[in-house]
Every structure is written in C-alpha cells, then in structure tokens.
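Recall from the previous lesson that a structure prediction takes nothing but the amino acid sequence as input. Here we apply that procedure to Carboxypeptidase-like regulatory domain-containing protein from Flavobacterium hankyongi. The sequence below is the only information supplied.
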Amino acid sequence: MCRYLLFLLFFSISAFSQTILGKVTDENNEPLYNANVYFEGTTIHTLTDSSGNFTLNLSKKINTPLVITFMGYDAYFISDPFQNTKLQIKLNPKLNQLREIKIESQYFSREDKMKIFKQQFLGETQASKYCTIENEDDINFYYDVKSLTLNAYADKPLKIINKYLEYELEFDLIEFKIKFFKRSIKKSDVTDSFYLGTSVFKDISKFEKIKKIRDHVYYGSTKHFFKAIIDNDFNEKSFQLFKNRFQVPLNMYFITSKEDDLNKVEIRDKEGMFRVEGVEKFYSQFSLLFKKSNQSNVVFRTNTFYVDDYGNNSENDKIEFGGKISEGRIANMLPMDYLPK
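The prediction returns the following tokens.
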C-alpha cells in the first residue's frame, strides 16, 4: 500500500496572534531583500523589503512551520512563529558540497523512471492530467538494485503548474522513494512510496467556476475527514465510519476538546493499546465510506493528535491513509489554508 503524502510539519500549542513581524539577514547581519517567507503548504506568503523586514497577517491560526528561503542560503524553519512578536532570522549560506555521484547499471530508461515518478508523485486522477512539472530536467534518479528502490531528488524546487485547480506550486523535494517487490519499474510491482518536502501555493485562477472544482476536490479528502471529526459532522452525505466491518458512531471512538487554539482529538480504543518489549504502543484501524461509495481506510499509530480549524492534523507520520482517499497526491493537493465557503 502506498503511503499518503507526508509533509515536513511541526505542530505546537500556543496563544494565537494574527500578525507576524520579522527581519531576515545574512550571516553578516546584512538585510536580505526579496527573501521568500511563507507558511508551509499554504498560499500565505510574502517577500522581505529592502530592509529585510516582512509582515504576515492571518485570519486564524495555521499549524504549519514558517519557512524562509533565499537563493544560495539554507532554508530556515520556525515551528512556532506565534511565540514572538518580532522574529529575527539569520540565514546561513549553503555549503558548496556536491551530491555523491552514484553509478548504476541502466536497467531502466529515464523515461520509464519519470513515468513512475509522476504516477506516484502527481497521482493518476483527473487533476493529474492537467499538471505539468516545468523543470523536469532538475529531477535526478537513482535505482538501488539491492533494496529495489527508486530514489529521486532535485537541487532546485520543482515548479508545478496545476491547470485543473489553477494553482502554481513550488515544491522543495527533500526525499522521494518508491519500493518494488522485484527488480521492476512497473506500477503493478510497487509495494510502497514515500515523499517528503515543503511547498507554497500561488493562486492563478481567473474564473469563478474554479471554486466549485476546488470544493469538489476538497470533499472526501483527508482535510475534510479531520475537519468532519472536529466538527462532529459524520453523516450519510459525508463520511461513514466502520470498525471491524461494523458501522460505528464517530463519538464512540473519537473524543474532541479545545486546547488553546487547537482541537485535541483522542481515540478511545482499548484494543489499540499493546506492549512491545515493555514499551506501550497504539494501533487502531478504521474503514471509511464517503457518500456511500468511495472506500478508504485509515490507520492511527497514535491515540492523541491535534487538528487546526482548517483540518490539518499534527501527526502525518503516525496516521496513514489507503484506498480512494489517498489517490490524489500532489495533483489533488489544496493549500493547507483552504476551506470551502
């Protein structure tokens, strides 16, 4: 089963402030002009002015790190930018290090590697047909025949144009792996796929109808699922929850409460707790139906997590989706600050 998209997320609990101010400088404390400042995975972004200053205004708290980037410098991450009223950020220049060059026998062509990369990265939905990666040549591949794994990396952010959802996406690919059960590059032989990165969205829509298309993609997504949990809004027109093949009410297993500006979710599943070598662990699996047809499953390896008001959860590495809900990938990805109106 292919794992659902995993982002570089850091959740925290703190008092909410609507305005974030900051200054970005280089290693010599000189201001950096036109540095990118954005909340990971959102449309919330700005550029620094000639003095290195920036201001971000938010209508509600979003629980994703603040990212600062500038050409030639290491990216800077702030897990909780709401703690300080004025941020002082110093970027460090990138070390001039070349990636290790790996020599491999060419079992598969670059064309075949690119094909499976797009299938697992963009997905195979209606939206993926309208997605293009403008700088494909910046993607490098390495097939490890010992582990039967295709690795991909890029030294520059990927520029993705999504004409279906009318977004321009900049995705900094940190890690990408596809594992196969035999020496193969075929989709039918994939056992697992994983990718990690940071992203920022730019809205390029020109037509009012795009809102309906985006809403259609939102409903039935993971964001919608977590939003439905905190809103206690499971019904026959949205999600139905099943445990051991029996439909169960949401509040039988999921208990929500407010903690500062976040929604705390606790899973009450006594059978999910077990011990391995004296260490207590948790595993609870559910099946989902969306509108009585689209079937998915979700595995929780934590019994407590937090969800912000947009439906973004705090434990992507411990919550795994399969089935229909996981098919969308990058092509069906909406900004983390998106909500239907």
